[in-house]
Specification:
Rossmann fold; alpha/beta; single chain; Glyco_trans_20; Trehalose-6-phosphate synthase; 18 helices; globular; 2 domains
C-alpha cells in the first residue's frame, strides 16, 4: 500500500492523546493507522523569518513535518486571505469579506512555499490528500514542480453558489488551481453542485466531473463509549447537581459568526418570553471557546454575546436559577461528551456549516434508553443525515423557540423513535467509512490532465 501524505493548514501535535486531538486528526485516525503516512503543514508558530526546510517528528508509522510561518505570512495568508476573504465567502457572506491584493500575494506565496518544501519529501507512489481552503493552490504548485502523484482535495466547509464565489476577486485563479486535483470532495451534494457550476464557469469543465460529495463522519461508537464513561465523573456530577432537576440544553461551538450564536441566544430568550411554563425548568449551557481573538469581527461578536446573555439573564433569572450559562474557554472533549449525555436538548444552529460534527457527537452521546432531542439548523450539512432532528431556520428566533418547546415536552417514546435512525446513520457513515470512500475515489481516479498555462483561454487569466 502506498504512503498516505496528508497536507493541512495545521499539523496536530503528535503528543496529543485521542481524547484531546483535533477534529481532523480524529477523522483521519483509521486511515493513519492502516498505512505509513506523512502529515505536512504549518506548525502553528510564527517567527520573524521562516525556514524553508520543515522540522520532522516521527511517531509510530506517521511522520509529522511542519513549517513555521513568518509574521508577515501569518498576517496575509492566514488572517488576511484565508480568514478575511475565503472564510466568509465560502459561508455565503460575500458582503463582509475583506480582499486586499497583498493578502492574495501572501496566500499564493505560502501555498508555493509549502509545495516547495513538500516536493522533495515525496515518493513517486505517494497518495496526497490536501485538506481545506487554506491550500486551494497547493496541488497546482506541486504540478509546476513536476509532481505527478495522485492528489485529492477535500473541502470541509461549504461551497457557495456560483454567483457568490465568482464575486470574490481571484476566484478564477482558485478554480483553475482546483483543476490540478485528481479527485475533489465536498460535504454535501448541494456543495458539489455549486462547485461543479463554478468550475464550469471558470473554464474547468473537465475538473467538474471529478467533484463528489463525501459526508464526513465521527467515531460514533468511540464517542458513545466516551460519553458513557464520563457521565459519572466529578465534572458531570457537579453540573448535574447544580441543575437541581432542571432540563439541560447544550450548545458547543467555536466562537464564530457562522455558528448562529446571537440567533441561538435570541431563540432561547424567545422560549422564555413565549412559553413561560419553561422558566426555571430549563438551563442553557453554551460553550463557545474564543477563536481568532485578534480579528475585529470576532471581538465584536463576543461583545454582542456578552450583552445578550447578560440582558436575558437579567430579565428572567431567579435567585436560585440563571437561564444561560456561557463559557468562552475550552472544555476538554471527554468532559463535553459527558455534558452532552446529560443534556435533554442539543442545540446546533449554524447559519451555514459544511457538516457540523457536534450534531453527530450529540446523537452519539445519548443514553439509548433515554435519549435527548437534537434541534438542528436546516443549513448545516448534517441536516441531510439527521432525519430525527427538529430542523429550524436559525434566522427565525421564534422557530428556535417553538422547536425548544416541542423538545422539552416530547414524550420518551417519540424521543427514542427520532434518535434510533440518527444513531444508526452516524454509525454506518463513520469517520473510517468517510476515509475509505474518499481514498477509493482518489486512488481509483484517472490522472488529472496537465494544467493549462495561465492565459490559454478566456477563463485562464493570469493569477
Amino acid at each position: 500500500m502506498s504512503r498516505l501524505v496528508i497536507v493541512a493548514n495545521r499539523v496536530p501535535d503528535p503528543r496529543e492523546r485521542g481524547a484531546t486531538a483535533g477534529g481532523l486528526a480524529v477523522a483521519l485516525k483509521d486511515a493513519l493507522h492502516r498505512r505509513e503516512a506523512l502529515w505536512f503543514g504549518w506548525s502553528g508558530a510564527t517567527v520573524a523569518e521562516a525556514a524553508a526546510t520543515p522540522a520532522e517528528h516521527r511517531k509510530g508509522r506517521v511522520t509529522y513535518a511542519t513549517l513555521d510561518l513568518s509574521e508577515e505570512d501569518y498576517r496575509h495568508y492566514y488572517l488576511g486571505f484565508s480568514n478575511g476573504a475565503l472564510w466568509p465567502v465560502l459561508h455565503y457572506r460575500l458582503g463582509i469579506a475583506r480582499f486586499a491584493r497583498e493578502d492574495w500575494e501572501g496566500y499564493r506565496r505560502v501555498n508555493a512555499a509549502f509545495a516547495a518544501a513538500l516536493a522533495p519529501m515525496l515518493r513517486p507512489d505517494d497518495t496526497i490528500w490536501v485538506h481545506d481552503f487554506h491550500l486551494f493552490l497547493l496541488a497546482a504548485e506541486l504540478r509546476k514542480l513536476g509532481c505527478r502523484q495522485k492528489i485529492g482535495f477535500f473541502l470541509h466547509v461549504p461551497f457557495p453558489p456560483r454567483a457568490v464565489i465568482m464575486g470574490m476577486p481571484k476566484a478564477e485563479a482558485i478554480l483553475q488551481a482546483l483543476g490540478a486535483h485528481d479527485a475533489i470532495g465536498v460535504q454535501t451534494e448541494d456543495d458539489a453542485e455549486n462547485l461543479r457550476a463554478a468550475l464550469v464557469t471558470g473554464g474547468e469543465a473537465e475538473a467538474a466531473t471529478r467533484v463528489g460529495a463525501f459526508a464526513i463522519g465521527i467515531d460514533a461508537a468511540g464517542f458513545a463509549a466516551l460519553a458513557a464513561r464520563r457521565f459519572r465523573t466529578k465534572e458531570v456530577d457537579q453540573l448535574r447537581d447544580s441543575l437541581a432537576g432542571r432540563a439541560l440544553a447544550i450548545g458547543v461551538d467555536r466562537l464564530d459568526y457562522t455558528k448562529g450564536l446571537p440567533q441561538r441566544i435570541a431563540g432561547f430568550g424567545k422560549l422564555l418570553q413565549r412559553f413561560p411554563q419553561h422558566r426555571s425548568r430549563v438551563t442553557f449551557l453554551q460553550v463557545a471557546p474564543v477563536s481568532r481573538g485578534d480579528v475585529a469581527t470576532y471581538r465584536a461578536l463576543r461583545r454582542e454575546l456578552d450583552e445578550m446573555v447578560g440582558r436575558i439573564n437579567g430579565q428572567y433569572a431567579e435567585p436560585d436559577w440563571g437561564p444561560i450559562r456561557y463559557i468562552t474557554r475550552a472544555v476538554a472533549r471527554p468532559t463535553l461528551a459527558g455534558y452532552m449525555r446529560l443534556a435533554r436538548i442539543g442545540l446546533v444552529t449554524p447559519l451555514r456549516d459544511g457538516m457540523n460534527l457536534v450534531a453527530k457527537e450529540y446523537v452519539a452521546a445519548q443514553d439509548p434508553e433515554d435519549p435527548g432531542v437534537l434541534v438542528l439548523s436546516r443549513f448545516a450539512g448534517a441536516s441531510g443525515e439527521m432525519e430525527g432532528a427538529l430542523l429550524v431556520n436559525p434566522l427565525d428566533p421564534d422557530d428556535i423557540a417553538e422547536a425548544l418547546d416541542v423538545a422539552l415536552t416530547m414524550p420518551a417514546e417519540e424521543r427514542l423513535a427520532r434518535w434510533k435512525p440518527m444513531d444508526a446513520a452516524i454509525r454506518a457513515n463513520n469517520a473510517s467509512a468517510w476515509c475509505r470512500r474518499f481514498l477509493a475515489a482518489l486512488e481509483g481516479a484517472e490522472a488529472a490532465p496537465e494544467p493549462a498555462r495561465a492565459g490559454s483561454g478566456p477563463a485562464r487569466r493570469a493569477a
